[in-house]
Design a protein that fits this description.
The protein is an all-alpha fold and 237 residues long. Helix content is 78%, strand content 0%. It is globular and about 65 Å long. The protein starts with a helix and ends with a helix.
Amino acid sequence: SMGDAFGGSFGTIAYLFCVNFLTFPIMNSMENPKEDYNTSVTMAVSGVWLVNVLFAIVCLAFYGAETQDLVLQNLENGVYLVLLKVLLCVDLIFTFPVVFSSGRQILENAILGGVDRNGNENVAGNENDIATNQEEEGESTSLTLALSRGAITTTAVGTCYGLSQIGGFGVVANLIGGVAQGTLAFIVPPAIAITLKRRENKGRLDVAHELPQWLIAIFGGAVVSSVTYFTFSEAMN
């Protein structure tokens, strides 16, 4: 049905291509982000799209309707399957930290707030007083900060592990892609654009600018809600 097809695919598509949360890490890794970002992302997305389409066609040609969410499940036990799983683990070792670091930084900024990476509070004041306070607190502040960051990282990793136990790979990809990345791609950007425009206009409503943003946000809300419903329905069944 259309519901099964949409619920079983859109989240995975968003998981692959709605990479808004990686924007800043990508830009930070570039020498000239203003000049290179658009071209680099366009080429990367196009390349990933082409490879995935070709891979899907090959899998469908071999296995037809029996193609699994994770195509490794279609392979029989043997040397090739073990080798592919090892290569997949190697891939995750290098890619998971890149994706995970963005979320970890967001959590640290939200929870630890006014503390910088050295354990110092970001407050204005007399430099001598601040230096004296830092010397007195010193090791205690650094230890507390390290423990706090360790707790945040442990909780986040545990959450990722818990989500991986929900069901098959397709279910997890749909849930993460459809809900988390769908929200970041279709709901958060319009909300930011509307807020900035109203701030620029000193609270005055700009219908011509806001209407398209509202339509995108409504579409995003509908997508997130439907993908969540279909994904949990699949997991329950």
